[in-house]
Amino acid sequence: MGETAEFALYDERVAAGLQGSAAAGGGLPAFLDIHHSSVGPGTLTARIETRPELMTPFGNLHGGVLAALCDHVLGTVCYPVIPRGAWAATTEFKVNYLAPVTSGALQATATIVSMTKRTAVVRIDVVNDGRPVCMAQGTVLIMAPKGE
Amino acid sequence: MGETAEFALYDERVAAGLQGSAAAGGGLPAFLDIHHSSVGPGTLTARIETRPELMTPFGNLHGGVLAALCDHVLGTVCYPVIPRGAWAATTEFKVNYLAPVTSGALQATATIVSMTKRTAVVRIDVVNDGRPVCMAQGTVLIMAPKGE
Amino acid sequence: MGETAEFALYDERVAAGLQGSAAAGGGLPAFLDIHHSSVGPGTLTARIETRPELMTPFGNLHGGVLAALCDHVLGTVCYPVIPRGAWAATTEFKVNYLAPVTSGALQATATIVSMTKRTAVVRIDVVNDGRPVCMAQGTVLIMAPKGE
Amino acid sequence: MGETAEFALYDERVAAGLQGSAAAGGGLPAFLDIHHSSVGPGTLTARIETRPELMTPFGNLHGGVLAALCDHVLGTVCYPVIPRGAWAATTEFKVNYLAPVTSGALQATATIVSMTKRTAVVRIDVVNDGRPVCMAQGTVLIMAPKGE
Question: Which residues pair with A95 in a beta bridge?
Answer without folding.
Answer: A136, B93
